[in-house]
Amino acid sequence: MLDFIIAGVQRGGTSALHFYLSQHPEIFLPKRKELHFFDDEAIDWSAPDYTRLHRHFTGRKDSQIAGEATPIYIFKHSCIERIHRYNPAIRLITLLRDPVERAYSQWSMRVKNRGERRSFSEAIRCPSAPGTRYIDRGLYAEQIAQVQAAFPAAQLLFFRSEDLRDEHADTLDRVCRFLGVASFKAHPEPAIVNLASGGGLPNMSADDRALLSGIFRDDTGRTQALTGLDLSAWSPLQPKLH
User: Fold this and answer.
1) Is 242 a member of any domain?
2) What CATH number does the domain containing 67 carry?
3) Is the backbone peptide bond immediately before 175 cis, with ω within 30 degrees of 0?
4) At 241, is the pLDDT very low, low, confident or very high (cuts 50, 70, 90)?
5) What is the pTM (predicted TM-score) of this model?
């Protein structure tokens, strides 16, 4: 049975955390990131068969804890319910990124993967489902509240994506303490935490940033209250652009 899951958020640095923890001798993570088991609607969730999930953990030692990373889980309430049914004692890790920057990063990823042809301005102003994803995924407060309603605080760890980049060793030590394993004897070298956006694409305009900052401001305030994190440096809590 899995001991922990990196549950979110998309474009928040989950790939980097998966890479780091994979190097810890007391932790087993599959080579494949994002198993997408708990969001698979083809599974009969009235009587789920966990064999397909557990086969990814062949080779795990008895001395190791096991986990996986699928950042869409926190976004879907059904996933949290299914994870709780699977293991009520599981621990969940969530990295939270400035939602304005996260939205732009998601858009740029989709453009590069040829899944998005609209400009960023068009995408965040479009009422269609593909457009609203960029915004919806950054409305963290409801997602966090659902997780907190399902699991006790001792089983939940939230931290900012910037912490993994700027306070690399201290953040990894915090994760290790949360998971109940020893700190790294030698911390892994910092990799490229997946926070970069752009990559040759146009920069976010001031108007787009102002629009998103206004949309996310109240939600980010609630997120700060729910998690106890200092999110004052995030775009939504900065003074409005004029």
Assistant:
1) no
2) 3.40.50.300
3) no
4) very low
5) 0.93
